[in-house]
Amino acid sequence: YLKHTFKKTEHVAGSIFLDKDNSPDFTNRKTILYGHNMKNGSMFGMLHRFDNTDFSKVKCYINIITPISKIRYKIVTTAVWGTKNIPSSFKNSNEGLIKLLNTVRLNLSHKNTIHLKKSISSKNQHMLVLSTCGSNDRSRFFIIALKQYEWRIKF
């Protein structure tokens, strides 16, 4: 994904990449998409614009379209993470999602962090993480979103 498109041709921007442990139908509890933080705004180059957004006051959504469904995720926070370990090291379970949230530096108030963790603990919640380069070479920047709806496409 670093320097090639999904068609395996070379390209400076690479491609957006699904974590190796995730299913392409987005059925995992935690799905991670990686993309370059391109200075021209392409790929995940625009994600940092959300860095200081209070998502308890602003509603933003991510729509994923697969061959069989359309999935809507609501962005709940941004986060910063070091590059030593990656979020795929956390299990696809309620406990794994909570452990991930406890480990990264969330852009949330204490009250909203508690609310988010309660929401994940009490439901069979699905999380989408968009991951790109952080502000330096020792960090990653995340957008964290929770699944809201899924519509099956009928043929």
Short description:
With 155 residues, the chain is α+β, with helices and mostly antiparallel strands. The chain contains two helices and seven strands; from the N terminus they run ββββαβαββ.
Can you walk me through this structure?
The chain is α+β, with helices and mostly antiparallel strands and 155 residues long. Helix content is 15%, strand content 32%. The protein has two helices and seven strands. It has helices at 94-103, 110-122; strands at 17-18, 30-34, 61-65, 69-82, 105-106, 127-133, 139-152. Strands 1, 2, 3, 4, 5, 6 and 7 form a seven-stranded mixed sheet that branches. Strand 3 (61-65) and strand 4 form a beta hairpin. The protein is globular and about 45 Å long. The protein starts with 16 loop residues before the first strand and ends with a strand. The mean pLDDT is 80.
The N- to C-terminal Cα distance equals 31 Å
Order of helices and strands: EEEEHEHEE
**Rounded Rg:** 15 Å
Average pLDDT metric: 80
Describe the largest sheet.
7 strands, mixed
Descriptive key words:
single chain; 155 residues; seven-stranded mixed beta sheet; 7 strands; 15% helix; globular
Topology, element by element:
Blueprint: E1 17-18, E2 30-34, E3 61-65, E4 69-82, H1 94-103, E5 105-106, H2 110-122, E6 127-133, E7 139-152
